[in-house]
Amino acid sequence: MIEFMSKPFEDSKSLEVLNSYTKKWFLKNFKELTPPQKFSFKLIAEKKNVLITAPTGSGKTMSAFVSVISALFDRALKGGLEDTVYCIYISPLKALNNDIYKNLVKPLTEIYETIKKEKGVDLIKENIREVTIGVRTGDTLQSERRKQLIKPPNILVTTPESLAILINSEKYVENLKHVEYIIIDELHELANNKRGVHLSLSVERLQELIGHNLVRIGLGATLYPLEEAAKFLVGYENGVPRDCIVVDASWSKSIEIRVMSPVGDMINAHENAIEDSMYKMINSDIGGSKSTLIFTNTRSGTERVVFNLKKRFGYSDTIAAHHGSLSRESRLEVEELLKKGALKCAVSSTSLELGIDIGAIDLVIQLGSPKSVTRSVQRIGRAGHSYKSTAKGDVIVLNRDDLVECTIMADAALKRHLDAFSTPQNALDVLSQHIVGMSITRKWNADEAYALIKRAYPYHSLEAGDFYSILKYLSGSYVDLESRRVYGKIWYDEKENMFGRRGKYAKLIYMLNLGTIPDEVAINVFLEGTKRWIGNIEEEFLARMKPGDIFTLGGRLYKFLHAKGTKCYVEEAKSASPTIPPWFSEQLPLSYELGIAIGKFRKEMSDLVREEIGRRQKKGALAGAGMLRKGSIPKAIDLYLSKLPIDKNAKSAIYTYFAEQELFCSSVPNNELIIVEYTSDNLKDSSYLVFHSLFGRRVNDALSRAFAVEFGKMTDEDISIMVNDNGFVLFVDHAMSMSERRVKKLFEAVMSSDLAKLLRENIRKTELMRRRFRHVAARSFMILKNYKGWRQPIGRQQVNAQLLLNAAEEIDPDFPIIRETYREIFEDLMDIGRANEVLSGLRSGKIKYKFISTGSPSPFAHSMLTFGHADVVMMKERQQYLKYLHKMVLKKIKSVGK
Amino acid sequence: MKLTEDIELIEGMPIAYIKSINAIAVSDLHLGYEGVMSKRGALIPKVNFRKIKDMIKSAAEATKADSIIVDGDIKNEFSNVDVEEFNELYDFINFAKEIKIRPILIKGNHDNFVERYSIPFKLAVHRQQATIGKYLFFHGEELPKIESKGTTTLIMGHEHPAIGIYYENGRKEKIKCFLYGKYKGRRLLVLPAMSYFAGGTEINLESRKSLLSPIFKKIDIDEMHAIVVGYGSTMDFGKISELRKMTAQ
């Protein structure tokens, strides 16, 4: 049973469980127990499974370790501490592992020193040994690994991938036979992806291997829903979640968030003025605190901000950038400087969001929306010296949608309404890997193996049919008997229902190819018909592009033509605007929860605005221009907005935004109303069909394709689409007439369609499918990245994956790895589940849609149409286009007023 | 589709039938490909040979041809004959025997060591090219030598021609095609690859410089017609130059 514990133990009760040496060390180093520790010491000492959620700086790691350390010293004092692993600590970051090691060596030595002093020569007589700790990751040197094999540490600090290797090493498994505790840190980072799925199976396999239950301890700063996180941690036994006690101490550090706009009027301000003001704001923030951490969301943004701060304010080496494209050495250097307090300011894309201790940060600045409440809490939580101080965050917004989004986000963060994580369910590629791993260790009865796999949370609903299809696939049943020697990775006897290892290379293949993180590769961009190399783009970015898409590279615009392997061919695009922003593959999608929250806000706010218009019209006043006079917010609206964490400028900007939309077209979209706007900006050849649909980008990704396919069928044309957080846009030929009847027909077609089938057909021959299939094929060991000492170059892997896909489709369109690729795209990349919910909402009438035709785009459509330009720190062009659109809006509102 | 009085392109297949010599002509089978790839760590299931057999069988039945001319690259590996290749080569010969059709092999650049099997299997293997009736068959990695004044038509493989078609939603399709044009006053027919895995070179997207066969240095490929094979039919899509214009839009 999953239980929530809300009342902490008394401190004396908590300390009672520790032995005198550990207690002495603890009291000497800490004045008191932190909130999570008030629960955890006793629970862990009682060997309960515990999930602890608590903010950064709240002694979370110690809350997990102190009781474990105490128990290990108990063992040592009895002379029973052996050279074997008793506790495994797992985190997703190697850097964090090194940190933990440093932080634990200190107490372990200090406690041992005290014992040594007290016991004197008895130490040897009583065989009281030191509690040891060791790190084992991909970076660990071969010599150190050998040492650990002979003399394993009592506490093993490792990563999910290294654990997977260890449980398949016959020799090392002997060292794991006595493991009692497993601590999983940064659980929120693992529970929502395939790395976590992989880990959950490794843990179940470990438990089965050693034949006793582990005490499982999970740690995370931002976890929601906690019940699901607990199930992820402890797994299932006989179809029921194992016992776990949830300790929610996330409230123990207060946060303070300000949403700030650099200028009062975000539309009419000159683009330079906005930029100037933004950097001034940042600079004054930096000046006002000892050490500041800035998040920019993208790598290019990080570089630009650092460059500008240095250029504008003459900072030298007191400001540094930190992001994934930098070398490991320079990242480590920045981290060290931060810890030492030698940096005034660090600027990061996302990379400093989790993990390692980065010292005392006074303030976090977030540029633009981080797109999820959880992420904003995680980032802002990096500020504040301890759990007692307040974590301060300034969110600087640069456009009106950003403002609304960040306002709602900040409000939700203060109320701690986090976004839910979701774990990929029944992923067949990770399952394949583990079955190969299992077959290496011993012979298995298939039903017994199936039962084991179902104990892991991400597989508790795995269908037997799926499991057996994987066994068949792995045994090479899709080729004739004599070829199975080459194709089969396991041996499987259907009659006896047994499986096991096949061939002498199985283990080597497994060890060299395991893991879930795909090899990513830089795609070289060439000018079509020439050999001119233009630059590199990321593979994920390529996967997102379709021919005709326009993107920027090195400051110039290019039109994507086609791709082959690791090469991409383009031509120069003249006088067009980008359809995909350069950071699109990096950009985090707006979460569903936040989308819905914004939708609710839109509804309430627009109701108030409509009332105000009604009131004015009753009085005979002109509704239009008068309402938009500067600085005049109607009382009721002011009252409503005052509940939110924003200043006067921001309130006024939000009010104007909504008033303009309502006056312009009397239609404000919300979470129960999709507005379909047919419009044109008179600049391009095509018109737009803008769908204001606020359900998060993953849902929009799925919905937009469905609408494009059905619309394509209706018009017998290929329809281009542009997806974004606030909706999506279909590009419609000018000549095509658009009417309410036509849109109704379109909705009826989409509502009655089989979404999965439709998306499958839509995605089947795309670059996205090809790239994702390669990842899945590599995870399923169909494409071996590393084979008998030969590394398959990535371009080759991609070409082979394409051939493999063709052949597999030919054999069986429902081939397990094809099925998994679709599952990953539909469920992990998109959100087909919720897209279906939206469709059923439309069918039942819970969600409505409304067609409007506007001569020029409504204000709420502007951010969607300027999407290609929407890099927060490069906004010149975008600002000009926005101004143009805004002018058209005001012209219409004024003419209505007259 | 009837190409000339004497040449019939079998609908929907990369196979040509030549009436006057009662033979079907195919090229680039690349047998054994999957087996060889699987030994390099890409476990591609075997489908190629099965697909090829199905096509040849129905073409042979429909035309009652008594021989099959393989215009090069019956197998895949450059170096020695891999055991996986040998197995499929062996099966191919048996299969031809079964359906009573005599194989005539033109050696391609992938076909080293194939001659080794010509005697035990009583195979007709031609080194570079072969003139059969009014036709000169050659693989294509070298220029042909016209031996007889009576030769009216040259037939080659090697290039794996195809065309690429893009759709707005990012879908892309590659469809195999024959190429049909003129060389030194004679007709030139380029056969598409039989291999399931040779998707082909997208002639309309690829620059002329990147083509494999030296013959395309002598003639302008853009003047050739693409005769597209797919979805059960065979259709003339017009000149490559026209197709290039379409995709450039």
Structure in words:
By secondary structure, chain A is α/β, with parallel strands linked by helices. In chain A, a hairpin with a 2-residue loop joins strand 29 and strand 30 (790-791). The model of chain B has no long low-confidence stretch (mean pLDDT 88). Chain B contains five helices and 15 strands. Chain B has a single domain (7-248), classed as 4-Layer Sandwich (Purple Acid Phosphatase, chain A, domain 2), CATH 3.60.21. Chain B has helices spanning 33-38, 48-63, 83-98, 215-218, 240-248; strands at residues 7-9, 16-18, 23-26, 67-70, 102-106, 124-126, 129-132, 135-138, 153-156, 161-166, 172-183, 186-190, 201-202, 225-230, 233-239. The two termini of chain B are 30 Å apart. In chain B, the strands form two sheets. In chain B, strands 7, 8, 9, 10, 11, 12, 13, 14 and 15 form a nine-stranded mixed sheet that branches. A six-stranded mixed sheet of chain B has the order 1-2-3-4-5-6, covered by helices on one side. Classes of the chains: A alpha/beta (898), B alpha/beta (249). At the A-B interface, helix 28, strand 29 and helix 32 of A face helix 1 of B.
CATH superfamily of the domain at 2-252 in chain A: P-loop containing nucleotide triphosphate hydrolases
Number of strands of chain A: 31
Low-confidence stretches of chain B: none
Class from secondary-structure proportions of chain A = alpha/beta
Instruction: State the major sheet of chain B.
Output: 9 strands, mixed
Overall 3D form of chain A:
globular
**Beta-strand residue percentage of chain B:** 25-35%
Low-confidence stretches of chain A: 870-875
Helical proportion of chain B?
A: 10-25%
Largest interface: A-B, 48 and 29 residues
Q: How many strands, which pairing sense, and closed or not: the largest β-sheet of chain A?
A: 8 strands, parallel
Secondary-structure element series of chain B: EEEHHEHEEEEEEEEEHEEH
Summed over residues and divided by their number, the pLDDT of chain B gives a mean of 88
Shape of chain B: globular
- What is CATH's topology name of chain B? Purple Acid Phosphatase, chain A, domain 2
CATH architecture of the domain at 2-252 in chain A: 3-Layer(aba) Sandwich
